[in-house]
Amino acid sequence: MASSVANSFSGLKRADDAVYTGSKPCKFTQWAAESSSRRSSKQRVRLAGARSQGADVAELQTSSSGPLLVPRQRYCEAAHKTIRRKTRTVSVGGVTIGSEHPIRVQTMTTTDTTNVQASVEQVMRIADKGADLVRITVQGKREADACFDIKNTLVQKGYPIPLVADIHFAPSVALRVAECFDKIRINPGNFADRRAKFETLEFTEDDYEKELEHIEEVFTPLVEKCKKYGRAMRIGTNHGSLSDRIMSYYGDSPRGMVESAFEFARICRKLDFHNFVFSMKASNPVVMVQAYRLLVAEMNVLGWDYPLHLGVTEAGEGEDGRMKSAIGIGALLQDGLGDTIRVSLTEEPEYEIDPCTRLARLGMEASRLQRGVEPFEEKHRHYFDFQRRTGQLPLQKEGEEVDYRGVLHRDGSVLMSVSLQQLKNPELLYKSMATKLIVGMPFKDLATVDTILLRELPPVEDKQARLAIKRLIDVSIGVLTPLSEQLTKPLPNAMVLATLEEFSSGAHKLLPAGTRLAITLRGDEPYEELAALKNADATMLLLNLPRHDEKVSRVHASRRLFEYLQENDLNFPVIHHLQYPSGTDRDDLVISAGSEAGALLVDGLGDGVFLEAPDHDFDFLRTTAFGMLQGCRMRNTKTEYVSCPSCGRTLFDLQEISAEIRDKTSHLPGVSIAIMGCIVNGPGEMADADFGYVGGAPGKIDLYVGKTVVKRGIAMETATGALIQLIKDNGRWVDPPKEEE
Fold first, then answer.
1. Which co-factor is required (predicted)?
2. Considering the entire predicted model, what is its pTM?
């Protein structure tokens, strides 16, 4: 069929535009030719190319019967402001999901599903916290039978909250539980395909057709039952559990995730069943964001309008888990994508509701106000594949007395604000900046703050405070101070922070020649004001949009600035500077920072983070900033954990074991450890981890290196020690640092 698509979807104008193939971009015509030779033409989308039809539309020849070949295009309603994506309404019991309704929040029980009383009590606690839906794992017939009792008991107790059955590997169980639960979540990677062995498979055209026919044969009865009983469905792809068939053809990629879901969606549509939502979850926020964008982009071409369930899977616990979720979910909400969300934490499920609600509130507010900036043309941002725009790091200039090359870090920088009061106790300040101390002298370490801002300089006669600052400058830690301070109380070798207005006025010319300069700006200034940057020799830009500006979006203002910089070949490093007022809640700060700055860093836009909040201590702000960089896959300063949130399948106490493993391994920056309660997503999510600790059987642990199991059936009592030994055997262990006296 022929479909007309707005020309605002960039890339539909020329048949040879680049497309995203999962592993690397290639030319559209090249990809179409290669694809046609690899699979049967009956199931492959036929694209005749994109013919321009004037300024407003381009024609795309396609077929809804097979996999997609879609050129690059936009994935959201607008590039310059938040407009919520329009969707159909999906009904789950008494709850409606879609763009005409609030963003719904949900979580998942951790109890044994056959323990009806414990499951009912946990669902009631979750509902009391404000959840709209609750998911329960249903792995076998016993669990399916228990679901009837759980549902009936909750209704009798006055809790009609919709229940969602989580299904893996068990089509017959899905059919049973569809008779009582309101929604069925199926995983396309394991509903009809065999468990992934991470083998590369070769398919003839007939073989692939038979695989698709098998999926339809297995899946159709569930679709028919959902239609009969008025149930909803989530087609929930997990990056960690793609089938060998999908990975062999599309790679372990966002495109493979989308195609895996679309195979099932086409069957639903063929059977005239539309009461379903999509999800594209991954433990890596960057992969997760790319997968959802590609999903929506392809739905736009086909004219599909199904709602989205958002989530970063296996996010972990505490602030790290909240930050990863805020980065992934928040980035999509800023673009108006997302209709129901879950924050997956290795904590009690009722604790997930609060950060979930905060994110939903941010998303609803952004779309209600349609926060943004004046329209601008976006040419340079990569929507579907990560390509970092790296600013030019400081170079040493002839005649400079100190080394400025360390004031920014190539993998992402952290800036912090320091007060005169903190300078009164230099050693405490140095420790809080995470420097190494040798005889009281600071030296840079892996997670040391790169640059500090002194809004007020100590008097020239305060020798002790100035010596404390000099010792930082001597080890290549940057010191920034406002232009007015440097003019009145000069500090040798300090960098000067000037507003764009001050720079444009030439006030900086009052400084000694060669003074290092940083410029702070909002990002939404008129282009004639930004033009002053073309004549700047700035060490960095600080992007700081005041929080009281309700109509302007930090994300869109920042994208506009980056577009301007790239269009004019200006390669200044850009630091995301976020200032929070007194009274800002700790979780609000984490969620907000992840949603705003993280949404930019996952696109490679930015070179660092600077968080300020008067109510919060220095250590919290520093670790939150470093956590954001690590969550965006930039600067790795601590052990990375891929930790599932637990469910009824979990074979050990995840919270207890996670705490034990973290206690013994948290000093291994650059090492990634997966802690998985069961095998469902274990090996796949461990594609993103170096080592894996996975529940293989009750009381038994399997250990992995990457996706490969290397030890099976280890008694849980000795499994943590065996994991440490495995890390040592692979040359990744270092002894923890000794505590300083």
1. [4Fe-4S] cluster
2. 0.87
